[in-house]
Every structure is written in structure tokens, then in C-alpha cells.
Amino acid sequence: MVDEPLDPPPPTPAAAAPPTPLLRPRREAFEHGLLPIPKLIFPEGTLAQTLSQLKEKLAPAAAAAGDGRVGAAALAEALQIPPDQAALAIGMLAAVLPAEDPALDAGGGGGGADLRDVLLFLYIQSYKRLVPRPHKDSPAVADVWPSTSAFDGYLSALSPIQLVRSNSRRFIPSQADEEIHQLSYLQKHMANILTLLADSVEGEGDDSLVLTMETFEHLGFLVHFSEGTSLSQAATFFANSDPDMPAAPVSAAQVHDWILQNIVSSLEFYTEKSTAKEGSQQIASDLDVTMADANTSHPRNSTPTVANPAFHRNSTFVEGFSKTSVVKHASDVKGNSVKVLNCHDSVIYILAPVKYATVYGCSDTTVVLGAVGKVIKVEHCERVHIIAAAKRICIANCRECIFYLGVNHQPLIVGDNHKLHIAPFNTYYPRLGEHLTQVGVDPSTNKWDQPFVLGVVDPHDSLSHPAGVSDVQAESATCVDPDLFTNFLIPNWFEDEVQEPTKCNPFPLPEIYQASQSKKQAVLEDTKKTIRELQLDENRKKELASALHSQFKDWLYATGNIRQLYCLQGD
Fold this sequence. Notes:
The chain is α/β, with parallel strands linked by helices. It has helices at residues 27-32, 47-65, 72-79, 83-96, 102-106, 115-123, 138-144, 152-155, 160-166, 175-197, 213-217, 231-234, 252-277, 291-295, 432-439, 511-533, 538-559, 562-570, and strands at residues 23-25, 69-70, 113-114, 199-200, 209-211, 223-225, 250-251, 315-319, 325-329, 337-341, 347-360, 366-379, 385-390, 393-396, 402-407, 412-414, 420-424, 452-453, 477-479. Mean pLDDT is 80; it is low at 1-8, 12-18, 138-158, 163-168, 281-312 and 465-469.
């Protein structure tokens, strides 16, 4: 199946594009920017007041910095949290900002963040994710997803096994469902958010709070237009402002009315499309890729199509594959993020530079993520091998998974995890060095063995914190034994097209792992030499070759590497 062009999306009679750009929530902030740190999450009834008080506490530090920035030390003192948690918050904020912030990125968050961005980041920590639809056969799911903790009764609703048995995604929120939920949250809280960002001036009532154009643009952390138009250009009160003349501040009330008008228009559009889909076989949202789309695509070079042409696609989906291999090169990836969803017993190669990556609901699968410049999230996976080069990774609610990592920051481990293993990065492909440079991942820094472990309970997920259950620290990960560490071979697709190909793992192996690899190589060479020196007749040679072949075949099946071998033979 040939990929269909996604940008600009073609019009169809069934779903014509809206006459004006739609205001959409920035999914990155809600998907990757929520941290399960209790002291970052304030009760909804006192949220606005608490953050206003926090703004007053942080304002002197921001003023003293001369550029309105707040560092981790000031944030830790104001919130009364450990410095490492404050640094994590600033670093995660940097990872989900809509634009690069050189001052913030320079020291991994040590340069401090704009106070307005900090306030927005802390505000959305109150967000609660959309609750999954209940499974119609919960007892049957429990039989194949045994409970081993107090939280399994809740997390089983999202298990990979269930997704296979249900054979659809009707039981988890669709992309459109989530965006409706996020927009509704912003609609409810926008008045408080604008009040928090606004400056006070002389005047009465609504005229006493104003927003400058610069502050208004910071709302781009939360929302954006589907056509890529900047907020200030879309807003009539700031549009076409003279770049040489600072635009006059606008009342917060006027901004609020304009944003709510756009949110209502977007919600009406979403709701109309969602209603039109009800009762059809394609229950997944207009923004989603259905299982049928994914499974009819050619596995080696496919981007499932988008059903709703009203939106510009900024994500590439690899979804619903089973017992196959899927390859994505840079030319196959649309947008700045990739999502690997509900894949089973497969090998997925994402050999491309992206900003964000999500691996969700997969089992018995190997996923290679070539270069991710912001953050990877791996969630609700079982018996999955993740091979990833990235700035950051977050692991949540996974079981019996192995992570081969090249990461510039500590791996974040949260939620109900069991039997996780971590190891250094173990592969390469011809364009890997080029891709790492492109997204800003530094292979000389690898913190794969320094996990940052938070709690089991995720306050953003209403399913994972039942009443009366106290939080405890999540189970950490164990380092893979160096003697069990192996390199992963990626087929050399299109190597001839690369002028300066990467020919080895760009992340240096720790000494103990390198020594083990050298020892294995020496044993292999000795074995080969011994075999060559044996005086065997042709029959004995055939017997030896047959025995080696049989043992190797058994190992391939036992380890699951047979899938990779098929991939290698196919190319």
C-alpha cells in the first residue's frame, strides 16, 4: 500500500476541511509533561490561589536573574521539594516546550526556565487523564493478566493481552476523545490561567489585568492552531503588529473571550465528527489510525492513513502489527513524533530522527528507536525489548521488559513496574550518527544505569490511585548481567546512500560490558580455530554443521530472535 500524502491533507466529500484553522491542545504537554510528584499537584479548589502565591514567591528570583527565569534551586525552595525533583521538573518542562530554549537546554535545565512557562507547567499538573472505557469481559481479562499487586485490578484494563483479545481500540480513549478532554480542561481553567499570567495595571474590574503579546505567545505551551499559524498572528488584537513597535497590552478578558470562542468551535467540530462515527466499524477517532489501516499496509514501508483530512498530521503511527517486521526510515516519518501502539510479537525499526516517541500496549516485541531529541514514553508493555537513543525516557507500568539505552538524562521510572532490566545501548545503523546530531543527543553522555524512581501511584490517572491506597516507591530496574549482554544487528538498508555511515555503536560501552564482549569474541575465535584444526572427514563435518544449525535454531526460537533473522534474510 503506497503512503498517502498527509500534508496538506486531501479533501474528501465525507469530511470537508473546516473553513478556519482549529485550535488544538498541544498533546506533548499533556502526554509527556505530567510528573507524578505529589507536591507539584495542588487541589483544584485552591489551585489558582496556590499558584498565585507561588508566583509571588518566585518573582524575586526571576527578577534577580534579570531575564525572568527560575532555576531548580528556587523552585525547590518555593515548593519544599528535593532539589533533584525540582531539577527533574525543570528538565521535563524543557522537553515539552513548543520551541527550543537554548538557555534552558544548555545545562539540562540548569539555566532556569521562564517563570510564565513554569507556572503553566505546574498548572497542568492538575490535569486528570481520560478514563478508559470499561472492558465488557473483565473476568476473562483477569484470567490472562494475573494480578500481582494492589493496582493490577485497575491497570489490567490497559494490558496488551486485553487489546489483543478485544481486537479493537474501543476500550481505550481515541485521539479525538483525548483532545476533546484536554480542550474541555482548558476551557474550564482558562480564566484562572490568564489571571495567573496577566500583569496588573491601574483600572477597575476586567481592565485591571492585561497580557502583553510576549506573554500571550506563552499560551502556545498549551494550544496551537492546526494550520501552524502563531497565536499572535491568529488573534485579531495582535495580528499584523508592527515589529518595530511593541504591541499594546490587551485585557485578559478580551483574550479569554477570544480563546473560549476558538475552543468552542473546535469542540463543536470534534463532537460532530465523533457523533458521525458512532455505530460504524471505524470507532477510532478521526485522528486515529485504525487496526485495519495498519494491518493492510505493507509492513516494511508503511504509514497508515488518516481518516479525517481536516487536520494536518504531526505524528506517525505504527499500530496493530502482529508477527511481522516494520521499518520506518526518515522519509517515512511524518511530523515530529512517532507512536508505536498495540504491536505484538514483532520487530519495529524506527530509523529516523524525531522529537517524541511513544510505545504503548505492546507485548513480545522489539522496538528500535534511532534518535529521539526530546523524550520517549514506554507504557503498559509486557516482555518488550526497547533499544533507544534519546535525551530522556520515561517508563511506566511495564513488566518483564529490557531497555538498551543511550540516554543523556536519568531514565524516569514510575508506576506499577515488575522485573525491568536496563543495559547500555547495543546497536547502530548507517545514519545513526547523523540522526543523533540532528536531534541533539550526545553519545558521549549515557546515564542508562542511573534510574530516577518515583511512586507507584500516578495522580494524573484516576485508575491508578484507588481511595485508601498509599503511594510507595516504584520498583526500580536491574542492570543486565554483562555476560548476558548482546549486540543487536540492524540490516543495512540503503547503506550505499550514506556518505559517512556509522559503523559502530556511538555510545561507548562501560568497561565491564566491553570486557565481556571481548571475552566472548576471543572464545568465538578460539572455537573457530579449534574446528579448523580438527581432522574431520566430510561426514563428520556434516554432522557437526547439522548439530550447530539445530542448536542455533533452537536458540533463535527460544529467544524470539527468529523474527529478526527473517528480517535480515529478507534484505
